[in-house]
Amino acid sequence: GIAQLGMVEAVARRALGGRVRLSGFSRIKFKKIVRPGDELTVTLTRRPELPGVLAFRIESGGDVACSGNLSTES
Q1: Environment class of residue 58 by beta-carbon count within 10 Å: exposed (0-12), middle (13-18) or buried (19+)?
Q2: Residue 73 in this model has a pLDDT that exceeds 70
Q3: What's residue 74's pLDDT?
């Protein structure tokens, strides 16, 4: 689980270009075990109703492996 959250953090930092500081995760749900060698897709989506919050999903084999929110500070 920690490795998955590290991947989300790395993707967020690349997507946001280092302009913001990441402040935490919330509402995390681990739904599927991820094994070494699994191909993963990480998706980030802005939450307009919650400024400074990005929703994330990690998918493996078409199934959601992990989801939650990532908070940022300007």
Answers
A1: buried
A2: yes
A3: 60
